[in-house]
Amino acid sequence: MNPIRKAVFPAAGLGTRFLPATKAQPKEMLPVVDKPIIQYGVEEAVASGIDQIIVVTGRDKRAIVDHFDISFELEHYLKDRGKTRELQVVRKISDMVDITYIHQKEPLGLGHAVLMAKDVVGNEPFAVFLADDIIKSQTPAIRQMMDVYQAQESSVLALQRVEPDQVSRYGIVKVVRSEGRIHEVADMVEKPEPGKAPSNLAILGRYVLKPSIFGILETTHEGVGGEIQLTDALRTMAQQEKLLGLEFEGTYYDVGTVSGFLKTSIAYALERPGLREELLAYLRTLDGLSHQA
Ligand code: UTP
User: Fold this and answer.
1) Could you tell me if the CB of 230 is within 6 A of ligand 1?
2) Which atom of ligand 1 has the smallest separation from the CA of 109?
3) What separation in Å is there between the alpha carbon of 175 and the centre of ligand 1?
4) What is the pLDDT of residues 33-72, one digit of tens each?
5) Which of 110, 224, 232, 234 for a ligand 1 pocket mutation test, highest count of atoms within 8 Å of Cβ?
6) Atom 18 of ligand 1 has which residue's CA nearest to it?
7) CA-based diameter of the chain, in Å?
């Protein structure tokens, strides 16, 4: 069986929820504490054994390309001033992994962005990362999913249980049978109304897909918003072949909305020894202010 070696990172969306910050840079480059969102995902992929990253970029790809490229000028500057730690941080990024960039000329949807990677991925299974879901776990989430793929040779979606009143924020799966944390998916519904959801298992931004998804995407018509939706292609896939979902072990942070982004930034900052105390003290003063108001 083919091992999973490649990961596709669609990053060509317009990021309208973060305007004006995303006017001239992709949402994936916004920092959580001091690291761009996309780097969290790339590190997860590398830690899982993936050795080629394919980033699908849109109009403003420069910031992403430059971030993962060598910066001779910056390295020279840091070396000159003896800033060894900073030099290591910067070097580690450009040494990390081989990255290929593909241009999506127009933002025609997530499904369309994945289809753009067809020729580079070829006829082998691959991972897809939506970088605006950051997942913290002991074993990387995508590694857990790759293990299920290796054992069962079916595509795997990342699932997490959500509160029943939260289902309308997610794609929700309909399950035909379950074994522990692995569920066989029969269908899925985008953002169902509470009470009409087929389960409380939400699809998050990690996928391990067989290359058959490309043929399905090629014949998938425009869906919601006039875009080619990955969910529509996955629904077809569930009808044609076995599709699994894994309730992965780990904590998921949604950085695709402004409130989720802020909460994640605070959560990650509080884990930093050098930041924690100062930030906590500051948050307490704000809390005190809100009690007085
Ligand atoms: P989102 O639905 O989050 O859209 O895309 P967005 O444009 O990034 O953000 P908002 O809703 O306008 O604020 C999900 C993922 O699919 C990628 C995005 O970059 C994001 O990683 N995407 C979306 C593409 O690569 N191309 C597209 O045409 C659409």
Assistant:
1) no
2) 28
3) 26
4) 999 999 999 999 999 999 999 999 998 889 999 999 999 9
5) 110
6) 13
7) 63
CA atoms within 13 A on the CB side of 7: 29
| Digit-coded pLDDT (tens) for 223-272 | 888 999 999 999 999 999 999 999 999 999 999 999 999 999 999 999 99
Cβ of residue 104 lying under 6 Å from some atom of ligand 1: yes
pTM attached to this predicted model: 0.95
Length of the chain: 293
Helix 84-95 to helix 72-80 angle, to the nearest 10 degrees?
160
Contact 160, 248 (CB under 8 A): yes
DSSP assignment of the chain equals: -PPP-EEEEEE-S--GGGTTTTSSS-GGGSEETTEEHHHHHHHHHHHTT--EEEEEE-TT-HHHHHHHS--HHHHHHHHHTT-HHHHHHHHHHHHS-EEEEEE-SS---HHHHHHTTHHHH-SS-EEEE-TTEEEE-SS-HHHHHHHHHHHH-SEEEEEEE--GGGGGGSEEEEEEEEETTEEEEEEEEESPPTTS-S-SEEEEEEEEE-THHHHHHHTPPP-GGGS--HHHHHHHHHHHS-EEEEE-SSEEEE-SSHHHHHHHHHHHHHT-HHHHHHHHHHHHHHHHHHHH-
